[in-house]
Specification:
Number of helices of chain B: 10
Strand order of the largest sheet of chain B: 8-1-10-9
CATH topology of one domain in chain B: Alpha-Beta Plaits
Shape of chain B: globular
CATH architecture of one domain in chain B: 2-Layer Sandwich
Strand content of chain A: under 5%
Radius of gyration of chain B: 26 Å
Structural class of chain A: mainly alpha
Strand content of chain B: 5-15%
Largest sheet of chain B: 4 strands, mixed
Order of helices and strands of chain A: HHHHHHHHHHHHH
Largest sheet of chain A: none
Largest interface: A-B, 100 and 88 residues
Helix content of chain B: 25-40%
Number of helices of chain A: 13
CATH superfamily of chain A: Formate dehydrogenase/DMSO reductase domain
Oligomer: heterodimer
Number of strands of chain B: 10
Order of helices and strands of chain B: HEHEHHEHEEHEEHHEHEEH
Distance between the termini of chain B: 73 Å
CATH topology of chain A: Formate dehydrogenase/DMSO reductase fold
CATH architecture of chain A: Up-down Bundle
Chain lengths: 364, 348
């Protein structure tokens, strides 16, 4: 026998541990074992295996949910600063947007199985594929955000020669590009919710009425975080109000996600996803409170901004993790489908003539 | 008759996915009907598929799941034979093999018959009719005790209340295919036969189809980065051949042909099984009105779908997509309004 051959059954054990979230006996002490005490719901499955394939997406996609939202929020902040004549706000927003959208592109390409083929995304435009729609949103948004940020370099250019021409041309080009970026930013900030919802992953799919609002709120709050971090408190009034608006949207919609989905809300409340989302909520609350109370202190404002950014990271990773957890446990696939099927059969038994195709998904 | 739970619907106008995808004068839609009631779990389909399609090995391992050491449909297993052991006789309202000579004799005459031979030998062997236990004794297998699978004890007495379900799973080639809808590169396409195939030179491994498949079929190959799944042997059927798995199946559990014909055949088979006292026989994936518009590869099952690891009521995820875009549009408006209010709503 080859001594390097893994022990027989090793793959199954690894698979099982992965599916149940860790070895049978809680490896991480007390907290790991906690979920095992939840009474098991009545359902059958094939050896406890998941029906679905868990997403092959790794941390890059969760991180992209954050950076994409950050770019969108920052562009809106920058455009607000541009239109209302707040140059510091504009500059901070534009630079953050460029950084975030660059990071987004890197993360997205890195997550591909064949990164060198990233441009195959540009072969088609498919409204049925949110990823294709997102590709084109990013293709429109990215250059606009880049140009707007580039325009911030105009004051450093020499006054004469070809670069002098650029110095004169860049600011108006930057203003147009900034407005274009802001026009596409809401799409960039919310399409990622459809990206997750348009899958068979139960807890993502069923959350589709609420996820876009969670992501919109989170994007606004992270954009506001940039403003609070980078702008003196005296000019951060809009950022403070944006933080409040974003936090209100996000907290409201996240509450809906956790409580309106029945069994499928459970992955958002338990395990690592639950911890991340609770952390996100606490950080959001702390960030908004800090922004309101620390109107005069630069340090408090900066801390609040950092808290809002961290909150957005935690929320995005939490939502991502909840979906992965729901795909890994056959319970979340089988039980809701079984209920739907039984309801439909009962309705048909009551009224055999009425058969209107598959039941429409529950609206809200 | 096709589906015991649903009254026969009016025959809907046949939806032809190939024509919908733009094929002019497409050949009839082809598919698989996998009749699990005659599957013997030989896995010839798995082997033939790997051989023909050059699918890499998945390594040898024992999973502790009956005789299933494949585990699931993956990028490296495009057919997967599931083995389910149940403490329940085959046809669970009928005792095992009742009425057959190997079960408890139902009558003295049958006992005597069982003791005999089916070939005319010129003599009348066995005991005279009238002593069933003695006749039954003569049919008892007196071989060596073996570490065989449960249920195969060789004697009616030793046979436990046990049945085995075996099923060769495969990509369903849905009429409304989630993987195809969400593919952002166009790597997945609808063939003229109505099947769904990945173009390996286009796929960039974004992984969206993996999450969109309601059956958990399509999968990304770790060392390759692209997704792979059953092609319904696109190369073979294009040349008029039968797909490798159906060709290799020794019991015609896997049947290949025009989908309309297969659906008729399947309905007849279910009717036959119901007549023969197997009331739990039912079709899965045959109904053009289900959440995926019916499967190009459908099944006859002997238990609930989830027992075999199949979703009980799959729905194509893009069914809700228009509603999703509307919700996202509302959220985008809320986002823009929030930002506008932040700048316009205060003094500084």
């Amino acid at each position: 026998m080859n001594p390097e051959r893994p022990e027989t059954g090793d793959r199954f054990r690894r698979f099982r541990d992965q599916a149940t979230g860790g070895p049978r006996e809680g490896r991480r002490g007390g907290r790991g074992g906690e979920e095992l005490n939840v009474p098991r719901a009545e359902f059958t499955s094939y050896y406890g295996r998941p029906v679905l394939k868990p997403p092959v997406w790794t941390w890059e996609i969760a991180a992209y949910l954050f950076t994409g939202g950050l770019a969108a929020g920052s562009s809106l902040l920058a455009a607000g600063g541009q239109v209302t004549g707040r140059p510091e706000v504009r500059r901070a927003g534009r630079i953050a947007a460029l950084g975030a959208v660059t990071a987004s592109a890197v993360l997205l390409v890195k997550d591909l199985g064949r990164p060198e083929r990233f441009h195959h995304m540009l072969r088609v435009a498919k409204p049925t594929s949110p990823m294709s729609v997102g590709t084109w949103i990013l293709t429109a948004y990215g250059p606009a955000a880049g140009l707007a940020a580039l325009a911030e370099a105009a004051p450093w250019l020499p006054e004469r020669g070809p670069l002098g021409l650029a110095r004169r041309v860049l600011p108006p080009v930057g203003r147009a590009a900034g407005l274009a970026a802001a026009a596409t930013a809401p799409a960039l900030g919310t399409y990622t919710a459809v990206l997750l919802a348009d899958t068979a992953v139960p807890s993502w799919h069923e959350a589709y009425p609420h996820l876009p609002l969670v992501f919109a709120g989170s994007a606004l709050a992270s954009g506001a975080g940039v403003g609070l971090l980078a702008v003196p408190p005296a000019q951060a009034g809009p950022a403070r109000r944006m933080a409040m608006a974003g936090a209100a949207l996000e907290l409201f919609a996240a509450h809906q996600v956790e409580n309106r989905l029945g069994l499928l809300g459970e992955p958002y409340r338990t395990g690592r996803a639950g911890r991340l989302l609770r952390a996100g909520r606490a950080l959001t609350a702390a960030g908004v409170a800090g922004a309101l109370l620390g109107r005069r202190s630069r340090a408090v404002a900066a801390l609040s901004g950092a808290a809002l950014l961290a909150a957005s990271v935690a929320t995005r990773f939490g939502v991502f993790q909840a979906g992965v957890a729901s795909a890994r446990d056959p319970k979340y696939t089988v039980l809701p489908q079984r209920e739907r099927l039984d309801r439909r059969r009962a309705a048909e038994a009551a009224d055999p003539d009425r058969w209107a195709g598959p039941a429409p998904a529950t609206e809200l | 008759m096709v589906d015991q739970q649903r009254p026969p619907a009016m025959p809907a106008p046949a939806y032809d996915p190939a024509a919908e995808a733009g094929w002019a004068e497409a050949p009839p839609r082809m598919g698989f009907f996998t009749d699990t009631s005659v599957c013997i779990g030989c896995k010839a389909c798995e082997v033939a598929c790997k051989e023909w399609n050059g699918v890499p090995t998945s390594g040898l391992d024992l999973l502790g799941m009956s005789y299933d050491n494949t585990g699931a449909l993956t990028a490296n297993s495009w057919r997967h034979v599931a083995f389910v052991e149940q403490p329940r006789p085959a046809g669970h309202r009928t005792p095992p093999f009742a009425g057959t000579p190997t079960g408890d004799p139902v009558s003295a005459a049958s006992a005597a018959r069982a003791a005999g031979t089916t070939n005319p030998t010129g003599t009348d062997p066995g005991l005279p009719p009238g002593d069933p236990p003695a006749a039954a004794r003569m049919t008892e297998f007196l071989g060596m005790p073996a570490a065989g699978p449960p249920g195969r004890t060789g004697s009616a007495d030793g046979r436990s209340e046990f049945r085995w379900l075996m099923m060769s799973d495969v990509c369903k080639h849905c009429t409304r295919a989630g993987c195809l809808d969400v593919c952002p590169t166009g790597a997945l396409f609808r063939t003229e036969f109505g099947t769904v195939v990945v173009q390996e030179d286009i796929c960039n491994g974004c992984g969206y189809c993996v999450s969109a498949c309601p059956y958990g079929v399509i999968d990304r190959r770790a060392d390759d980065g692209r997704v792979w799944k059953c092609t319904l042997c696109y190369d073979r059927i294009g040349a008029g051949l039968t797909p490798a798995c159906a060709q290799a199946c020794p019991t015609e559990s896997i049947q290949y042909g025009p989908l309309d014909e297969l659906r008729e055949r399947a309905a007849a088979r279910v009717a036959t099984l119901h007549e023969r006292g197997v009331p739990e026989a039912r079709l899965y994936g045959h109904d053009p009105d289900d959440g995926v518009g019916g499967d190009g590869a459908f099944f006859l099952l002997l238990d609930e779908p989830e027992v075999y690891g199949l979703p009980p009521d799959p729905q194509v995820t893009t069914h809700d997509l228009p509603r999703m875009w509307r919700r996202a549009g509302l959220a985008a408006l809320a986002m823009a309004a929030g930002a506008a209010a932040a700048f316009l709503g205060g003094r500084r």
